[in-house]
Each structure stands twice: as structure tokens, then as C-alpha cells.
Amino acid sequence: SLASCTAESSDPVDNSSSTYFLERTYGARSVTYEENNSDNLNLNDLPAISLKEADEILSNLRKHTNAKEEHNILAADKTLLKVITSQTINGKYTFTIQLNLTGYADGDLYYNGYNAECSSSLMKWYVKGFSLASDNSEGNFIFQSESYIYMKVADNGIKYMQIPVSIRGTYNPKSHDASFTYKL
Q1: Core-most of 39, 87, 100, 171, by most CB within 10 Å?
Q2: Is there a contact between 95 and 69 (Cβ–Cβ < 8 Å)?
Q3: pLDDT tens digits, one per residue of 66-101
Q4: DSSP readout, 85-117?
Q5: DSSP H helical segments within 27-98, as ranges?
Q6: How far is Cα 172 from Cα 175, in angstroms, rounded to an integer?
Q7: What is the Cβ-side half-sphere exposure of residue 8, based on CA atoms within 13 angstroms?
Q8: Are 160 and 32 a contacting pair, CB within 8 Å?
Q9: Is this model's pTM higher than 0.90 or not?
């Protein structure tokens, strides 16, 4: 007797040499890129990197390899604050978040926008914005957001990959301590 079988398109064997690994491991997805996009991301500026390079970068980011944190509070006056916190991973990739806040004497804190940037020329970081809420117990404020890292990957042509990143941080207006973590 003779038997045959077929592989489904989601079978890893069919996708072993493609971006399937990034999709499965990091939740990445291939996206189309239009130069007139609404997010003002110029992905054409990104250099094309190999799948191996993309995996190495994302692996270091996921593991927070050799993470170093810094934070700084700039006050234009007693009410206008810029809470700046950054993380440098593996001495190569620095992610900086600047929250623009207005503080009031009664302890209320209002969010007035943000700046977010990544120091690496190998990727772009897009942050949708932040929510800010009091933790109601220790006087800390919690900020969080969903964001994406974009990479230009050379894999049988050029593919733009979008990798989701969740951000969560805290700011204590009394001690001016600030930090953030992320998960990808």
C-alpha cells in the first residue's frame, strides 16, 4: 500500500527559514509599511538585519541583559515636571521615557504627554501613549502603555516586523523615585 501526507501552512517545517520563529517566540507580526503612515515612523531608515540578528536583539531585550536604569526629574517650576527614566540593555539599546506631568499642592498629578525614544538605529520604538493612575496605597503613580518595536528583516526580501511591548512603571512624587519595566 501507498500513503501520503501533506503539511498544513502553520506547520513549523514549512516556515523554518522565515519570520515564523520571531512570530512564535516574540509575538511579532509582519506588517506592511506605507511611507505616508499616520504614526510618522520612517521605517525605510532602518537597516535590514538578518533573522539571527533580530533574534539576538530581541532575546537580549527580553532577558533585560545587563540592564542599567537611570532616572531624572526636571522641574521647570514647582508644578511642571518631566519624569525621565531610561533603561540600557547590554550596553547597546537605551529606551527612554519622559512623562510630562503637572503636580498640585494637594497631591494630584496630571499627565500632559510624553516622549519616548530608543537609541538603536536597528529598530524604531512606537509608544501609543500612557495611562496614569494612583495606586491609592503608597502614594505612587502607575503609568502603563502598549508599544511596538519595529525592525526591518531581510528574509526572502524585506519584511517589516512589529513586536508588541507592554510597559509598566511607577513614579513617587514625594521621593521622586521612578522606574519602568517592559515585557515582550
Answers
A1: 171
A2: no
A3: 889 888 888 777 788 899 999 999 999 999 999 999
A4: EEEEETTTEEEEEEEEEEE-TTS-EEEEEEEEE
A5: 51-63
A6: 6
A7: 2
A8: yes
A9: no
